[in-house]
Amino acid sequence: MRAGVLGVGLAVLCLVTAGCKKEQPGGQTDKRGAASALRLGFFPNITHAQALVGQDSGAFQKAVPGIELKMFNAGPAAMEALTAGSLDASYVGTGPAINTFLKAGRELRIIAAAVDSGAVLVTKTARTPADLKGKTLATPQLGNTQDIALRHWLGQQGLKPGQDVTVTPLSNPDILGLFLHGKLEGAWVPEPWGARMVAEGGGHILLDERELWPQRRFHTTVIVTTREALERRREPLKQLLRAHVELTRQWQHHPETFIPRVNAAFAKTAGRPMDEAVLKDSFSRLEPALQIMPEQLKQAAEHARQLGFVPSSDLSGLVDTTLLNEVLREEPAP
């Protein structure tokens, strides 16, 4: 889960220039000849909070000497790089992760959670599901996490996408722009775009997606790798997870200092920091996470199958938290 926030239409990966290392002598060598300890993908998005801070602070570089960090703007591009062997791991939304697992030989593995929740349906005038009939809604990408969630929810409300409601895939910046100009009734979007639609466009949160899930939690961002990388680069992956766990603990225990660090890192990729009110509102719906909820993933896959986006909802073999559990056992007792 969950979508490229910056750069309209960008699907090309770019190497992060600040605080990142290129291939290092002595790193592990894959069968394509590339030498680096680990190649990690992430997005310039607050739903990749640990990745933003880990990259900007040097925590990843310290934990995994020789790590190569690559920034993406779309889940499919990151997953294509992973399956092609030019990435070893990536922060990504659950939608692209599940889709890649089911369509690319079941080789992908989810090794940890990162961020839960943080998606909302924001509308201009609608205050009930019935008010959406005849209106146009947007999602960040056809078949992505929010798109599947919206289409499934509309069906539960007795509304057929394409007949009763028009659902249009648009980039998040385009969604905000059209909403501000009254060209959209609303959108199902990840943070901070929901908070921005409310703050800048006078939007109303018709539905917080947490209301649809047990314990009001659902995975937005996870860490993925491949079966082959788990075999060949086990120690660098474990080092990465140590850093990820430490960053997650900082968020859990000291959000008052961690969240400003996310904004500072975000500013370096976006060119300016996020408005403080928008940042606070966004993080009120985002939750740090480590452990995977397999049943939630299975339900998300079933929704995608019912809508025709994936051929099956069988996720057996997708989750492997062996390394995460080893790292968690290393933590000192509270």
UniProtKB/TrEMBL annotation:
Top-rank taxon: Bacteria
SUPFAM superfamilies xrefs: Periplasmic binding protein-like II
GO cellular component: endomembrane system; periplasmic space
Keyword Signal: yes
PANTHER family: ALIPHATIC SULFONATES-BINDING PROTEIN-RELATED, TAURINE-BINDING PERIPLASMIC PROTEIN
Family designation: Belongs to the bacterial solute-binding protein SsuA/TauA family.
Protein name: Sulfate ABC transporter substrate-binding protein
